[in-house]
């Protein structure tokens, strides 16, 4: 395999790119599963089947939008949250929410809310106690009114007609609700089948609600209060926000690994000062970059293939697999490159194809066995019923397998071409430029003088020198 890949590099590289491109075409069917219930619960489980039966006969459960207003920002500690000014301000916030218009579908709360008995929306809030009085809160009697309504909620029913129990809107009190340290309000929105117009309209209005509540947070902060909220789409938004943040970490990790690969594979430290021109010939930046590209290609091919077969990806896959494949895959390129350097010293008179084949023949079995073991281990995880684990295991198994195959074919072809370039003393980043000065000290470091190697001195890279002399001196 190594001899074929090094003898026909163009065919090997072209075939590898073609296969990866075909597999990656499945990205057109890529679908990301974001629903937590479908991530962690198997569709065949009794709970999932019962929920599906309920949704098909009675419709999906309602969407709840909740806020929590507390008074815990004072140095003295938590205190009563209610006052006339706070009640008046919160009543204005609720009025503005009722008048919110969504951006895309131009829907109001009245259009998307749940209306059980009449034309009124279900809004469970402390302000509902004053509905019978026209929503007017008396600054002198509001405490007595609130105590009376909390004692007998049926006499202070809100617009939608259902009495509001004090435990549903107050928190952090013992006997007197006016001393409550927290209040909560809930808007109940109708739900519908996934991707239906009704659901999209509800989500659109929730986005408008989120923007308004973010403004209310600042208003509450100015009053010495803390407002928190949770909408039905909050969990999905937080997951997406986390993924976007983690993407930066993935990019940084790949850059660090690229730098490490260039250092570990690069020019022996002792030759840099002897002849700086060697740095242009033996830097191996291309091989380090290629190792990272192969990792990305394997991830792309795996995701594309399983998207073809209809296996949905998850946020876990998007965030974790790049690290796994990077960790278990990049180390193989060090084994192959360093083994080729040892073969160059022991068999200097053989042609490049034979030396590359000999190097892969020594390292290939270990790489293949390791890759098969990792692939089988991940594949066994695909038998788990939990969708998140099953899909992750399948995607990881495919990525690890493709990565190993590309390393023993495509990478070997590039390694062969790189070795030919080095022995012809050509610049790595501009191979059309032959560096004459590099010929002087290339003997013993991947160069030929008179058709044979005249020095077999062991070479040490910058990283090897650091580990030998500083990190773990003998």
TrEMBL record:
One of its GO terms (biological process) is sterol transport. It comes from the Eukaryota. It holds the Pfam family NPC1_MLD. It is a multi-pass membrane protein. GO terms for cellular component: endomembrane system; membrane. InterPro entries: HMGCR/SNAP/NPC1-like_SSD (IPR053958), NPC1_MLD (IPR053956), SSD (IPR000731). SUPFAM superfamilies: Multidrug efflux transporter AcrB transmembrane domain (SSF82866). It is found in: Endomembrane system. Keywords: Disulfide bond, Glycoprotein, Lipid metabolism, Membrane, Signal, Transmembrane, Transmembrane helix, Transport. Residues 246-417 form the SSD domain. GO terms for molecular function: sterol binding. This is SSD domain-containing protein.
